[in-house]
Amino acid sequence: MSQQDINQQKVDIIVLGASGHAKVVIDLIEKQEQFQIIGLIDDDPTLNGQEIYGYKVLGDKEELENQSCKQCVIAIGDNQVRNDLEYWLEINGFVLVKSISHPSSQLARGVSIGNGSVVMAGSVVNSDTNIARNTIINTGATIDHDCNIGNAVHIAPGATICGGVTVGDLTLIGAGAVIHPNVKVGKNVIVGAGATVLKDIADNVSVVGTPAKVIS
Questions:
Q1: % of the chain residues with pLDDT over 70
Q2: Could you please report the per-residue DSSP string of 112-155?
Q3: Contacts with 44 (C-beta within 8 Å, 6 or more apart), sequence order
Q4: Is the Cβ–Cβ distance between 15 and 37 less than 8 Å?
Q5: Residue 150 contacts by C-beta under 8 Å, 6 or more apart in sequence?
Q6: Which of 12, 43, 83, 94 could form a disulfide with 89 if both were Cys (CB 3.0 to 4.6 A apart)?
Q7: DSSP 77
């Protein structure tokens, strides 16, 4: 089979975002060998026309509306921005591509991952864990069995989510944080880097320290 035939079988995809996080997502997509990136979209006008790893920044969301390709991945680290963009895509006729996992990640039996979510290098997701849409499981993070991770969540590099944990929508689990078994972390929570969460966390708060305590 020729390279042209291979390229014709790939699924076209547009990447929303052109920052450092987008570079990681681009590398992730390239390793799948099933997608073909046709360009990047970013609302920063200074990036228009520039190239990231050989892919051109086509323009902002207005330019996206001119594209025939309807499958997208949102390569932006901020949870609220990602969540808002997903809504914008939906009402404008675009869809999130199916989840993308790095070849070095480990996904156990019974794992479910929603559209638009990305699982980065060296991460582990264990049995019967559900990860919702548009969520980031970042480099080297571990999520144990029977967890439920919400929409537009970011599990930062090196975080450890023990078994039976629930993480609400829009929550950030900071780098190196540890969530103990069967804890429920609410929606729109920030768990600081290196924190150790031993008990349930309410919605809309920030926690830091070991053991983690609410600071706002």
A1: 96
A2: EE-TT-EE-TT-EE-TT-EE-TT-EE-TT-EE-TT-EE-TT-EE
A3: 18
A4: yes
A5: 132, 135, 167, 168, 169, 170, 171, 187
A6: 94
A7: -
**pLDDT given at position 133:** 98
d(CA 61, CA 65): 7
At 56, which amino acid appears? K
- For 54-68, give the DSSP string: TEEEEESHHHHTT-S
Contact criterion met (CB below 8 Å) for 10 and 28: no
The position carrying tokens 């035939």 is: 5
pLDDT band for 76, please (50, 70, 90 cuts): very high
Structure tokens at 139: 């480099």
The answer on pLDDT for 2 being more than 50 is no
Please check whether residue 122 is in contact with residue 104, taking contact to mean a CB–CB distance below 8 angstroms. yes
10 Å CB burial of residue 15 (0-12, 13-18, 19+) is buried
- Of the CA atoms within 13 Å of residue 199, those in its CB half-sphere come to 5
- Band the pLDDT of 216: cuts 50, 70, 90: confident
Rounded (10°) CA dihedral 87, 91, 95, 100: 0
- Mean predicted confidence (pLDDT) in 51-67: 93
The pLDDT tens digits of the residues spanning 158-207 come to 999 999 999 999 999 999 999 999 999 999 999 999 999 999 999 999 99
